[in-house]
Design goal:
Elements lengths: L1 E6 L7 H12 L3 E6 L6 H8 L3 E5 L5 H14 L3 E5 L1 H5 L1 H5 L6 E3 L4 H12 L10 E5 L2 E4 L18 H4 L2 H4 L3 E4 L2 E2 L10 H8 L8 E2 L2 H14 L4 E4 L8 H14 L4 E4 L7 H9 L2 E9 L3 H7 L6 H13 L3 E8 L6 H13 L4 E6 L9 H6 L27 H8 L2 H6 L4 H7 L11 H11 L4 H19 L3
Parallel strand pairs: 1-2, 1-3, 3-4, 4-5, 8-11, 11-12, 12-13, 13-14, 14-15
Antiparallel strand pairs: 5-6, 6-7, 9-10
Helix pairs in contact: 1-6, 11-12, 20-21
Length: about 475
């Protein structure tokens, strides 16, 4: 059976799709990945391949793009559509209503996908396959989610070659990996808590880790076919599993030896751990600071992280020459423009390399949702159909400073680097300065520099991503 898969953009290849392609490869299926920006004419390319099934991954906030592409392809060709990923897992009711969705997969795709393809090939019934919701003859079949795969090493290696056939990705010195899934914390704004407590409840251990050997094997496979000079590990908390982390740090310099970065929780670090990371080649970390306010961070967002944790970590990062990016959120419940500036100043105090700033966006699947309603930050449960972080006004708290905060959010790193610009931007925020959206290019530049991507290569990559997103507007 010919299977076409679509990644929505060049922006960091989907490791979920790579996993699925690994399984397809192991089962000898004929498959091909398409990234719209890299195809001269996406419809022509897909038609030439002639797939019977079109597969898309979805993430809340960019799910429209996958639906849009599916709708376009379906208008011009005949094929079944299958959607997976965190968005359809959390919002299956809304997703299955989309006219372009025939089947969706909730949760892990590896087993359900193969069962579906096998049933389709043999022309057998597939409406009862676990994890799938199937729209068929006017009925929607909603199947239960199967237990989580506990032994991640038992899965075939991800197939990254389909992404890396594109030279822009192949030659990018930065490559991304994930060595385990799940996060045990219960931050009130994060969908993770819903995965843990609701979606995967009773489905086995949600926190799982690949072995260190398996993780290194995945890196070596990617090294065989592409440039790998810098690695970023996407695990939610890379330093969570202490024994694993120690083994990783012991073996990594000898067996891989490529500079790396990861995401950490600052309360789980001490000098011994940071030194171990440094000795293992760690050159950067990212962490969720969210806000300067301990009250909002802990009482509202439920992060359980003190300012002292960040300050201690920052001292250690300085000592061991590890650059750090603080992720922050603006327009949080109870915060105003002054808080946004205090957060910016706090990031500066921490000596961070830069900040990843997002305006807080609400979905009804965040654990905080009832609290927001009870405390009158929102008047009703937000719908997901129009959820689109590009239209931030529709998905954030309607605070008095909302408009100005949204406008300023794109300029946070510029103000971070050049503090004298703060009052100027504050004054400019009364005007629609967000139209100068090229400002985000500076964020991209810092991000690429943090990841040790040479400047021209980084700019080219970012411009291609922007161009890629524009292609969607032309789909008719
Ligand atoms: C790496 C990562 C990114 C990377 C790369 C994203 C990507 N394309 O994979 C970057 C930094 C670009 C990113 C950006 C964003 N991310 Co992100 N990201 C992650 C992270 C840390 C790991 C994802 C991962 O690789 N998982 C491992 C793979 C194997 O799992 P998977 O992708 O879920 O795929 C499995 C299943 O979902 C399913 N599946 C997936 N696709 C398909 C398709 C088909 C056809 C089938 C059958 C099955 C299937 O099968 C796969 C294998 O089991 C997760 C948190 C986490 N720990 O999972 C957040 C996470 C996925 N991100 C999230 C969000 C919200 C975003 C942003 C929208 C944030 C923003 N506001 O900008 C953007 C969206 C842009 C984008 N590219 O998707 C949320 C998604 C929640 C949601 N409701 O959708 C998560 C879960 C974080 C969280 N806890 O809230 N992200």
């Amino acid at each position: 059976m010919k299977v076409a898969l679509f990644d929505y953009s060049l922006f960091y290849e989907s490791l979920g799709l790579a996993n699925l392609m690994g399984v397809l490869k192991a089962k000898n299926h004929d498959y091909k990945l398409f990234i719209i920006s890299e195809e001269k004419d996406i419809l022509k390319s897909v038609r030439e391949f002639g797939p019977e099934i079109l597969c898309f991954s979805t993430c809340t906030g960019i799910h429209h793009l996958s639906f849009q592409l599916a709708r376009y392809l379906r208008k011009h060709m005949d094929a079944i559509t299958l959607f997976g990923g965190p968005h359809v897992t959390l919002f299956p009711e809304e997703s299955i209503r989309e006219d372009c969705v025939d089947i969706l997969c909730r949760g892990e795709g590896e087993e359900a996908f193969i069962e579906l393809l096998s049933a389709l090939e043999k022309k057998e019934e597939f409406s009862g396959i676990r994890n799938l919701w199937v729209k068929k003859d006017g009925t929607i079949y909603k199947n239960d989610i199967r237990p989580l795969i506990q032994d991640l090493d038992s899965l075939p290696l991800p197939d990254r070659s389909q992404h890396l056939k594109y030279p822009i990705l192949r030659n990018l010195p930065l490559k991304r990996f994930i060595t385990g899934y799940g996060c045990p914390f219960q931050c009130s704004f994060c969908h993770n808590a819903i995965f843990l407590k609701d979606v995967y409840r009773g489905k086995g251990n949600y926190l799982r880790k690949k072995s260190v050997s398996r993780s290194f094997k995945e890196i070596k496979e990617v090294q065989k076919i592409s440039v790998v000079k810098r690695i970023h590990f996407h695990d939610d908390n890379f330093n969570f599993h202490k024994e694993w982390f120690k083994e990783f740090c012991d073996r990594y310099p000898k067996e891989v030896g490529i500079p790396w970065s990861c995401t950490v929780r600052t309360d789980m670090l001490n000098e011994e751990i940071v030194k171990m990371m440094h000795n293992a080649g760690c050159v950067g970390v990212t962490y969720g600071l969210e806000t300067h306010s301990e009250f909002v961070r802990n009482k509202v967002l439920n992060k359980n992280l003190k300012n002292q944790d960040f300050e201690n970590a920052s001292r250690l990062f300085k000592k061991y020459k590890i650059r750090h990016i603080a992720a922050t959120m603006l327009n949080l419940p109870g915060e105003d423009l002054e808080d946004a500036f205090k957060t910016l100043q706090y990031v500066r105090k921490l000596n961070a390399y830069s900040t990843r700033t997002a305006v807080y966006s609400i979905t009804r699947k965040q654990p905080i949702i009832n609290w927001l309603i009870e405390n009158k930050y929102i008047s009703r449960f937000p719908g997901i159909d129009n959820f689109n972080p590009v239209k931030l006004e529709d998905v954030t708290i309607q605070s008095a400073d909302m408009k100005r905060i949204i406008r300023l959010s794109a300029f946070f790193n510029i103000m971070f680097t050049f503090p004298f610009l703060e009052p100027i931007f504050k004054a400019l925020s009364f005007f629609p300065i967000e139209k100068f959206s090229m400002s985000r290019i500076y964020d991209g530049y810092l991000e690429m520099k943090f990841m040790d991507v040479p400047i021209f290569q980084g700019i080219r990559y970012y411009l291609r991503i922007r161009k890629g997103l524009k292609v969607y507007q032309g789909l008719r």
